[in-house]
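Sample pair:
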Amino acid sequence: MAEGLLKQTLAQSAIDCHVSSAGLNALVGHKADPMACQLMMQKGIDISGHRACQLNSEMIRKADLILVMEAFQKDAIEKNEPSTRGKVFRLGEWSHFDIPDPYQKEMTVFEAALALIEQGVAEWAKKLH
């Protein structure tokens, strides 16, 4: 959901960058959750083609900015790749919040996660503009 929203928001703001997503413990090759797809389609964003991939060292080296959902993810990336310090931040960095993973939870949890993602994306778009 975050990748789709960030891509759309940055494109609308005429911010030229490449946005992709990867997980620390990704179910590689799996599609986005049907509830996530449904919520995003309501916003006019089709994420049905998304496939999960695992974050790797090459992605980390190429990235100028890495946004994570939760503080433990930031810590894990920085521990495994000390060179990332200063370029890994939470999506909710500016308002000091984590975004809990809604995977395998009910729709209300997906909706709550999406609301936090929207807030974080809006805040980052302002900072990047």
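The CA atoms of residues 72 and 98 lie 9 Å apart.
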